[in-house]
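Input for the complex:
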Amino acid sequence: MTVHPTHPPFGSHRDLLLVGGMPLDRLAARVGSTPFFAYDRGIIDARVAELRQELPNSVRLAYAMKANPMAAVVQHLSRLVDGLDVASAHELHTALDTGINPESISFAGPGKTEAELRQAVAAGVTIELESFREALRVTSISERLGLRARVAIRVNPDFQVKGSGMKMGGGPQQFGVDAECVPDLLAQLRTWDLDFVGFHVFAGSQNLNAEIIAESQRQTLDLLLRLADSSPWPIRYLNIGGGFGIPYSQRARPLDLALVGRNLADLVPVLEARLPQAQLTIELGRYLVGESGIYVTRVIDRKVSRGKTYLVVDGGLHHQLAASGNFGQAIRRNYPLALGNRLTADADEIVSVVGCLCTPLDLLGDNVALPKAEVGDLLVIFQSGAYGLTASPTAFLGHPAPAECLV
Amino acid sequence: MTVHPTHPPFGSHRDLLLVGGMPLDRLAARVGSTPFFAYDRGIIDARVAELRQELPNSVRLAYAMKANPMAAVVQHLSRLVDGLDVASAHELHTALDTGINPESISFAGPGKTEAELRQAVAAGVTIELESFREALRVTSISERLGLRARVAIRVNPDFQVKGSGMKMGGGPQQFGVDAECVPDLLAQLRTWDLDFVGFHVFAGSQNLNAEIIAESQRQTLDLLLRLADSSPWPIRYLNIGGGFGIPYSQRARPLDLALVGRNLADLVPVLEARLPQAQLTIELGRYLVGESGIYVTRVIDRKVSRGKTYLVVDGGLHHQLAASGNFGQAIRRNYPLALGNRLTADADEIVSVVGCLCTPLDLLGDNVALPKAEVGDLLVIFQSGAYGLTASPTAFLGHPAPAECLV
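Predicted:
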């Protein structure tokens, strides 16, 4: 009986998980300390290749850096995708350091500060306007800097996609400009000297249902074609977001990417006929990097309390908050776990895996079947390539920051 | 109608909140940027004084640094309390830097590493043993360093306290040694050369019900008196934790500290008769600092989307995760909020306060009554002195770290 997950995209050699072809024990020695995050560039490459194969050729891919802003990951992806999306001045710096064309960088976020907007105008990136006030601010900064800012309008759609992990469109929202107010903003933009390039809509995230994504993309393009009629300028940029999910539990099924691709193949000719200059962009974060990453911890203690076995590891929620169920999840579910140095052993023991923090929140695996673990073993949490380290309270209890490596 | 909370311990002058006697606008200018955390030393002093007045004189107070490890706060508290509790090597360093007697520092945590234990033995602090294996490790380190380690046993009690925000005792647990196994561990300790000083029990946290805390303290002391019978050495240290809660919502009522004090006054004479050398310690984190702190943000945008008004501020869940309901809370409730520069104005508008992050999780106040806010106003989140900055994912989306000040 081997019921513990050995996650498909990673290889194995005898008992050992392979990361970028390197056995996990050797990688741990190379890193020099646990815990650490490791990202497998081969898995990232394969994911991009799969997207290029399933989506129409004319669709551009952008990477939403917020999912994993590690500089090496961003550098690597900048050579594979067509654009980068940033959410802060710091992410902007990292994106610019890749050497990518600044126009291929988009900057979104409902609370951009004056200083951030100034940096974005100076950099020449595409600023996604989230409100009338922001549009006015950008105009004023453009005038002061003597630089014509490149802008798109982020649209809060007038529909909502069901089944998303998070809702980010429809109804009242802090994100973007309500669809029905976009013509007014476009009329305003006529009087300001900005380089308006198009629209951005983001209608959901972490969605595993291809039918819903397809329906959302249809509705989004319908909406954008309508809004384009109000534009005094040709539309050159249409970012319809992504929202492609990855499975976190063993019951969840992966997204049917082929279905999404077929749907886009139907939509693209209509779009090209109506808006011949528009470049259609799909923006993905988690889907590009989430499955490439693991969080590696070492078993420090193994203890039995009143009949229940605990593995205490040297990591915890301070590095992988989402795996403890404390970041946006309504219901706590175990992330896929394995003993990275005992892959072929029978999973004949039920244990709880807890982090080193002095809080009961620090639960990484609740009643998980694993091979019998010993102190020193390497406990691996899969699906840790996105919203892992940077979405975690690293300073909590003052433990050292973990290393990160791209292998 | 003024229904917005102007939090009692902070003073006000005209429209302005006072922090340590300084008007908030001047403090913001002194700090130089928003967002920031500010802690009012006068409120901390008053809380300690209140505890000294309500609790028996012989009770020692310890500060659990994990609640707020800012060095200035720890330095300040080290002169007011009798001990510091640390949860990592980094917290240990900060505690030692205060100049407090190392024996008054306790080090707890289920996943202490070999390196951390070595530092703790070298420092001469009280190590709270969480397992047999840890006891063995400490013995071996003691031998190697030629230093007799000072140790206590952390006990997982055989009862559970109802009504705590979190359960940390009773049933199977990763924390401490099951009460029924403590006599075995004490027998082992006879053969090892350690300086055994006593016990630590922590049975809950964030509890607002004084009756339950009193009952828990009775049960804890009963248990510890029983366990003391198995000790070959006199008991000098009894840390019975704390778990004193603070109110986060307007409906929650503050803890009846006087009741807790009267209960302890009944228990202390029994304890002193049975274990004359035992120093009884109450360990508090949140209760000492939580109410002293505010998180100050500035309104960047004010927008209306489909009839709903949003205030977008320059802070967010990356600094104050718990206020967004994403840190250990089952149900999201608004923290108390105010416009720190409009305290006397009528709260005649219902708004949602959102952070600057590009995620719908970044909700700081849902349908809150506030005075009409303008861009530039200072939006204050109260109850932010504990589990604020260090319990938040500061690197998320790459925004700058906020300043902290003790005023």
